[in-house]
Amino acid sequence: MKNVTLAEIFLHPITQKYLQRSGIAHAVKVTEHAFHLAFKYNVDLDLATKAALLHDIGHYEWYRNGKWDYELYRENDIHAIKGAERAHKLLIRLGEEPQRAKQISVAILLHTDSYLPEAQIKRSPLQKVVKLADEMDEEKGGNHHYNVMDIETAFQRLQRLDKLIETYHPLPAYKENLR
Ligand SMILES: [Fe+2]
């Protein structure tokens, strides 16, 4: 049994509170994309899926007068910074190993360029996988944040991933990370 599961992270009240804002459907779909990409590119499945599940946990309420002003939101957005911090705190609280919590947190920090000054960032394979997984579920005007998925379905899909990760987890990349 692995240390902290996706299902366990998902059910935590902090995740439930903050994931509602950016959408459970988006979080679950990005986690599934991250699983497949990580598998393909031999990236640590556990780190990639946890970072994907929590990548948008830093979003705040973007409604103004009942409507979402997407442009204004983008201008003021620091969700990757807030999300990295929030995810780290949550993972440590759940008992994640500090080295791994850090890697997940940094992957969340770098999952988007939207808030960064123009510069060339050289992402690690894990960081690339999380960014790419997010982009695979992106819809125009941020519409991917409004797709609906009920909690039960989300939970079952994450449990399915947990089982797959447990089966395939000891990949060479994972062993390397443990050294
Ligand atoms: Fe996202």
N- to C-terminal distance: 20 Å
Shape: globular
CATH class: Mainly Alpha
Radius of gyration: 15 Å
CATH topology label: Hypothetical protein af1432
Bound molecules: fe (ii) ion
- How much helical structure, as a percent, in the residues? 55-70%
Summarize the helix and strand pattern as letters.
Answer: HHHHEEHHHHHH
Overall average pLDDT? 89
Strand order of the largest sheet: 1-2
Largest sheet: 2 strands, antiparallel
- SS-based structural class? mainly alpha
Strand content: under 5%
Number of helices: 10
Q: At CATH's second level, what is the architecture?
A: Orthogonal Bundle
Integer tally of domains: 1
Q: Give the number of DSSP strands.
A: 2
Which segments are poorly predicted (pLDDT under 50) over 5 or more consecutive residues? 171-175
GO molecular function: hydrolase activity
Organism: Sutcliffiella cohnii
Domain HD: 23-139
InterPro entries: HD/PDEase_dom, HD_domain, HDIG_dom
Compile the SSE list and pairings.
Layout: H1 6-11, H2 13-22, H3 24-40, H4 45-54, E1 63-64, E2 67-68, H5 70-76, H6 79-94, H7 98-109, H8 125-136, H9 151-168, H10 172-178
Helix pairs in contact: 3-4, 3-8, 3-9, 4-7, 4-8, 6-7
Bound molecules: fe (ii) ion.
Fe (ii) ion (FE2) is lined by residues 26, 30, 55-56, 134.
